[in-house]
Specification:
The structure holds two protein chains of two kinds.
Chain A lengths: L4 H17 L40 E6 L4 H16 L4 E6 L3 H11 L8 E2 L3 H6 L6 E5 L5 E6 L4 H14 L3
Parallel strand pairs in A: 1-2, 2-3
Antiparallel strand pairs in A: 1-4, 4-5
Chain B lengths: L1 H29 L2 H4 L2 H24 L6 H6 L6 H6 L5 H22 L5 H25 L23 H30 L4 H32 L10 H26 L3 H24 L12 H25 L14 H31 L9 H21 L10 H25 L5 H26 L5 H7 L2 H26 L1 E7 L4 E4 L2 E12 L3 E12 L2 E6 L2 E5 L5 E4 L1 E4 L3 E10 L7 E9 L1 H19 L6 H16 L1
Antiparallel strand pairs in B: 1-10, 2-3, 3-4, 4-5, 4-6, 6-7, 8-9, 9-10
Helix pairs in contact in B: 1-3, 1-7, 3-6, 6-7, 6-8, 7-8, 7-12, 8-9, 8-11, 9-10, 9-19, 10-11, 10-13, 11-12, 13-14, 14-16, 15-16, 16-18, 18-19
The chains are: A alpha/beta, B alpha+beta.
């Protein structure tokens, strides 16, 4: 029987891999789902306007997108976020994570900004409060300021239809 | 037009690979020599067409053809020419094409250097390699076509990942793949032997040089990757136990075990079943490495935006190839008759111990790498396994292996005498113990791990000397003549073992006596580290072909005497906007001085955060690895692997004269 052992072990491994293919290793469930989004007050990029706080968005369903100018995956989703912003489906706030103000400003000036506000989390503390593990990450926050959805990774039309739209419908948006 | 030509060449290569796989394997089973004879030309033809496809892709990159999606995603018009060429294998599709190209290269090499093999053996080996080619070519054509067009064409490309724009990364993937794919040859030999039922000493002798060469390439590939990470990531680290690194390290450990086990099988006819299993496992781990890196099942630098169809394809392929070969093994294993017995203390038993320890280490690395996946798959939560785990299990396993490494080559086959060995090696043991205790004191204080490292390094080096002394004591003639007369396999083995000694010394020091500081530096300010004074002379704008950079100037002096002027850079690449830290290093035999720019500080004139590293003995690590590589190539070039070849050439020569 001993000679069959390598094959059996291998097949068990394959089983795990097959299961693993359908998991996202970066999808860490957020403890904030169903809870109030952590509060913060941060200056916005370029100091263009008053500091931003999630309390400013009370009464609206909105999206918090955590991004950075150096993040390649953020560029992938940029085009889709622009479309989304133009459609007026949902206001998007773009938290600039751990990066210098002027780089973000220059990039948004060049590529266009899908955001209604861009708070600047230079030292990454707000990111820590939200449990950010990498960029991009996106949250949907409801009218009462409660986190309803967390998504890790870039957003495209597919993800939007299968994950975001159902949540928005539930919230009656 | 050219990309379509490349696509077409790939399709022809797939058809040729099918021919290469099916006809010779069927022919070998039936004893049909006409069908077996198809193997060589089909393999060579397949290689030619894959090479044509590769050249077409390289051409598209070099000519900035942004109507090809792969080029548009991974290249950029301002990218220097050499990187435009290497961008050919910088993407997922391109690197798979390189994989197939190298497999074609190895198949062709087997077809050329297998003239002395029995016809059915050669046909089976080449046929099995053809089967692997079929899988990868089908993977390329169905899920990862590198020639996919982009309509309308992009105006410019997205640029190559700046991290990859380094010459270490130019040669790292080809070398790594030469190793990974080279193990396919040992795998094919094992399958051919299982199919024919002829698992004899000759099989082990044929497999040995191929395995050793593949191992040497893999060693080179891994060390290049490590050296790249050290210079390019700006953290001064050289090994992170990242899943991608482990993916290349696991086949290396298995390959090391295989090399040693093949030696026993060739010389003594023992361990046959085990050696065959190792050959299968080594290649399985190479495929597993490809799967882990390419599918994104593990969280790693490569993971995002991977296509599950790709992962499913590789997994299916892995399951079929390895599942079938392990089933074949289980079916055939009882037929293997093991030769020569040996006593508990002999070279065989020591090599067995080497294998047991290496496999335990392999298991530990495999478990640590896949543990997060197991937990996640069973819904037990998300965890990550980091360097503390790996260091805690790997180091204690390696210490006894390294100690036994000193004894193994000196022990006799079949039955060695422990008292005799003890007499011969007691001086080496004494000197090594003294070195382990005293050498750390010459550095910055005593450290038990450094002490252990020095002990093992000196022990291995002295046992290498003892092996040479043994050889020189017998026979006649001058010492130089005798040295020159030693077989290359002996030189190769000793060189590789000495490389381990040098590398272990390097690791022992760099892991325990490195120093680093994160400092804020204004223009003209000083910082002290490990007796060196670093003076910051400011940063100036410096533009490269496809990036803008701030280029710092840091003067290093020691006791008032200038040592070096370093120019670390902080780059921002034009196309991607990605930032990159380009460290500047001043190396010598005993240490590296390593400076990396952090961030500019606002509000003060030209001040920066700067990272300073003092890395003693780091270059011993690279040098030790290079000795291992050189040893591997030298051992593979041993005369006895070529004797049969020459024997065959003589009649041909005579035949020509007769005609």
């Amino acid at each position: 029987m001993k000679r069959w052992l390598p094959l059996v072990l291998f097949l068990v491994l394959v089983g795990f891999f097959a299961k693993g293919l359908f998991l996202n290793p970066r999808e860490v469930p957020s403890p904030f789902i169903g809870r109030t989004a952590p509060a913060f007050t941060l200056p916005v990029v370029g100091n263009a306007g008053a500091p931003f706080s999630p309390a400013d968005m009370k009464g609206k369903i909105w999206m918090l997108n955590i991004w950075a100018p150096w993040c390649v995956s953020c560029r992938q989703e940029h085009g889709f976020l622009m479309q989304l912003a133009q459609s007026g489906r949902i206001p998007i706030v773009g938290l600039n994570w751990k990066d210098a103000d002027r780089e973000a400003q220059a990039l948004l000036a060049r590529t266009g900004s899908p955001y209604v506000a861009v708070p600047d989390d230079l030292d990454g503390r707000v990111g820590i409060d939200y449990g950010v593990t990498g960029t991009p990450e996106t949250y949907i926050i409801d009218r009462q300021g409660i986190v309803r959805l967390k998504h890790v990774g870039p957003i495209g039309p597919d993800v939007w239809q299968t994950k975001f739209e159902p949540t928005l419908k539930e919230l009656g948006a | 037009m050219i990309p379509e030509l490349g696509h077409f060449a790939l399709i022809i290569a797939l058809l040729l690979a099918l021919t290469q796989a099916i006809l010779p394997l069927y022919g070998a089973q039936r004893g049909n020599f006409t069908l077996m004879a198809v193997a060589r030309p089909a393999a060579q033809g397949q290689f030619v067409f894959v090479a044509v496809a590769f050249a077409c892709l390289a051409y598209s990159f070099l000519t900035n053809d942004f109507s090809v999606e792969n080029v548009a995603r991974n290249s950029f018009s301002q990218l220097p020419e050499v990187y435009r060429f290497t961008a050919t294998w910088g993407s997922h599709e391109g690197s798979l094409l390189l994989w197939v190209l190298i497999l074609g290269f190895w198949s062709t090499a087997v077809s050329v250097f297998s003239r002395r093999l029995p016809e059915d053996m050669a046909a089976r080996v080449i046929g099995v390699m053809g089967l692997i080619s079929v899988g990868f070519l089908a993977f390329l054509l169905t899920t990862s076509n590198p020639f996919e067009r982009l309509l309308p064409a992009a105006i410019d490309g997205n640029d190559m990942n700046p991290l990859l724009q380094d010459w270490g990364m130019i040669i790292h993937p080809p070398m790594l793949y030469m190793g990974y794919v080279g193990f396919a040859v040992a795998f094919a030999f094992a399958i051919a032997a299982l199919l024919s039922g002829k698992l004899d000493v000759a099989w082990a002798r044929w497999s040995r040089p191929w395995t050793t060469v593949a191992w040497a390439f893999l060693t080179l590939g891994i060390v290049l990757g490590s050296w790249w990470a050290y210079r390019e990531l700006g953290w001064g680290g050289w090994w992170f136990w990242d899943p991608t690194e482990n993916a290349s390290f696991m086949p290396w450990i298995a390959g090391t075990a295989l090399m040693h086990s093949l030696a026993v099988t060739e010389k003594r006819g023992a361990f046959k079943a085990w050696t065959v299993l190792l050959a299968l496992v080594t290649f399985a781990l190479s495929l597993l490495g490809t799967f882990l890196v390419r599918s994104g099942v593990l969280s790693s630098v490569h993971a995002f935006a991977t296509d599950p169809a790709r992962g499913a394809f590789i997994l299916g392929f892995l399951a079929v190839v390895i599942g079938a070969s392990l089933a074949l093994y289980a079916w055939r294993a009882p037929k293997m008759i093991t030769g020569g017995g040996f006593t508990w203390f002999s070279r065989e038993s020591l090599l067995l111990a080497n294998n047991v320890i290496l496999i335990a280490a392999l298991g530990a690395v495999l478990l640590g790498t896949l543990y997060p996946l197991f937990m996640d798959a069973m819904g037990l939560g998300k965890i990550s396994v980091g360097p503390p785990y790996f260091n805690a299990v790997f180091v204690p396993l390696m210490a006894p292996a390294l100690f036994l490494m000193g004894i193994g080559p000196l022990a006799r086959w079949k039955e060695a005498s422990l008292p005799d060995l003890a007499t011969r090696l007691k001086w080496a043991l004494g000197v090594a113990l003294a070195a382990g205790l005293l050498l750390p004191l010459t550095l910055d204080g005593f450290n038990p791990w450094a002490s252990l490292g020095f002990f093992l390094a000196v022990w291995i080096a002295l046992t290498v000397l003892a092996a040479f002394r043994d050889r020189l004591r017998h026979g006649q003639g001058s010492a130089m003549r005798k040295l020159a007369g030693l077989p290359r396999s002996f030189w190769g083995m000793q060189l590789a073992h000495l490389g381990i000694a040098v590398g272990v010394a390097g690791i022992a020091v760099v892991a325990n006596y490195s120093a680093e500081r994160d400092v804020r530096m204004e223009v003209g300010s000083h910082a002290e580290l490990a007796g060196y004074t670093f003076t910051f002379r400011g940063a100036a704008a410096h533009d490269g072909p496809n990036y803008r950079a701030a280029r710092g100037t840091v003067e290093v002096s020691r006791d008032g005497k200038p040592v070096a002027t370093l120019h670390p850079e902080k780059r921002v690449y034009n196309a991607s906007g990605m930032g990159m830290t380009e460290a500047s290093v001043h190396p010598n035999v005993f240490r590296d001085l390593y400076v990396a720019m952090g961030e500019p500080l606002d509000g003060s004139d030209g001040a920066w955060t700067v990272r300073l590293f003092y890395k003693p003995f780091i270059n011993w690590l690279w040098f030790g690895a290079l000795l291992m590589v050189a040893g591997g190539f030298m051992a593979a070039a041993d005369k006895r692997y070529r004797i049969a070849l020459r024997r065959r050439e003589v009649p041909q020569h005579l035949a020509a004269q007769g005609a």
